[in-house]
Amino acid sequence: MEVVRPYGFDKWMFAITLILLTMGLVMVFSASGVASIEKYSQPFYFLIQQAMGALAGLGLIVVLLAVRKPFYQQPVIIFGLLASTLGLLVLCFLMPPVAHTNRWITLAGIRFQPSELAKISLVLFLAWYLDRRKEKIREPAVFVLPLLVVGLFVLLVLKEPDFGTAALLFVLSLVVLFLGGIRLKYFIYLGLAGVPVFAYFALAATYRLERILAFLSPDKGALGINFQVTQSTLALGAGGFIGASLGEGVQKLFLPCPYTDFIYAILGEELGFVGTLVTLVLFVILVWRGVAISLKAPNVFSQLAAAGLTFLLGIQALLNITVVLGLGPAKGVPLPFLSFGRSSLVCNLLVIGILLHISQRRETQRTQA
Fold it and tell me: pTM score > 0.85 for this model?
């Protein structure tokens, strides 16, 4: 048995989300103003699109907080979402390619990236499955179904191609399976099966191989494939301690993707070391609150779902920031709440909505205590 405390959601997580969301809108406008004028002849295009995604995501949070029952825990919702996501991923290959990739679906002028929804779908499915099989969790047969589902999703995303998101899905699934109690030796088998697949896709595309080689020898690729990372580190260095101030950064004129994958570099140039440190601290607090929600969750499903969704946000932020700092090869993973992208923003706010809903729920015995 459990009780729901109306408006008893985690206020720290909600406040941190609003701060990051506000910072994201400001930085998207600052980083995209020039590109927006060049592409759409007006400076507010990307800001307006991001604001629309923010409003949609906040609307989802309001709806989730207003609903008392955890409907996202019902099998019909979990499998419906899983099947819908799978169908959308397949539909991507029937859509006209965008920049030589099949990552998006465009309907009524709205472009959506199903792989963002796949992250949530897999976490909820794995949490539900592990909860249902918790009494037999150490049996080999329990590992088969999640392995097939995760493998299918990862392969579809690899074929789009989106290597960074596919790797994120794989690692995220491993985290949830580990927390759910799957025996360690099965991860060795999974690694033996998964590493060759990722290695094949990494080496099959010339640009991926070049990114790896450029990361290993950054000076040799400074004017070539490693140009993005070189420019991002220059932006961070130019920002100094307090930055050049909002809108005054110049690296956004040279840095590819300044308002998407490399927005953290523009933040560093315009807000300096202080701005980057504050942003990093905000993400650390966000992950801390997510872990706290997981530990206090009323059942196994909620504990695993909250942990998986928390690590989803944390791993994305870590991957993005390491690339910007030149500590890893470029992966194309956006920075949650800050990078431009409606699909990513709406799905990340949906993650926050589920976490806040879980934080409202408590076991009856814990509440009485």
Answer: yes
